[in-house]
Amino acid sequence: MAPAVGIPLVSREVRHCTMVASSTHQLRKEIKVTFSVGTKFWRILNGFRKYYEKAEHKECLVVPYVVTCAAALEATMNDKLIEYAHGRWGDDPTLAQSLLSMSMRGKLNALVPLLTDHRFQFSRTHFVYRRLNSLISVRNILVHPKPFEKKFPISDQVHPLGYPILDGYVEAAEDMTLGAIEKFNPLEYHEALEKLDKWFFRRLPDHISKVAMLVANSRQ
Q: Is the pTM above the cut of 0.85?
């Protein structure tokens, strides 16, 4: 189940107020509000799932669905890291930015230790972590596409025009998923995001000791 629609950064949403002059030369207050992008991606994902499940030709939706799952993961992690930085260091933007400058995989691996005061980390063998880790790898390939090589065995049969027939060539040439479902399909990536929210974020800070996807941090 996706997070409730709303402002997840709670009081952190309202950062500061400033006084500005209006066109009538009267002073009025302005409030600068930071909106979570993560909640918007959750709504997009839920809509995407409906279209994907009903689609007759799902292969054309795989790449955008997987990329959107990855964007939702990064947006959610960024929300949580910003909230953590403000709670720990106040409004110093350089410290929050130092967390956001990490690689996406670095954010995933640092997320649990940071939000649990280094008491826990992800279990690397749990299906949620394996899917999220795979999602990052697939996302990196999809958003930085490059030509790729693939070897094909030569068939014993010969094309009528004399060309060699390569086993599996047609399937690879017509694959619209770009290999994005080699390990997990979009619904499985989406499920992993929902489990991360349900089993980790919603249980913080005091109800995570028995969560199977977390293990005690031996370096605490």
A: no
Within-domain flag for 208:
yes
Q: Which of 106, 188, 169, 179 is nearest to 142 (CA)?
A: 179
Could you tell me if residue 32 is inside a domain?
no
Residuewise pLDDT in 10s, the chain (220 residues)? 444 444 344 444 443 444 444 555 667 788 877 778 888 999 999 999 999 999 999 999 999 999 999 999 999 999 999 999 988 888 777 888 889 999 999 999 999 999 999 999 999 999 999 999 999 999 999 999 888 788 989 888 888 877 888 888 888 888 889 989 999 999 999 999 999 999 999 999 999 999 999 999 875 4
Residue 190 falls inside a structural domain: yes
Contact of 211 with 19, CB cutoff 8 Å: no
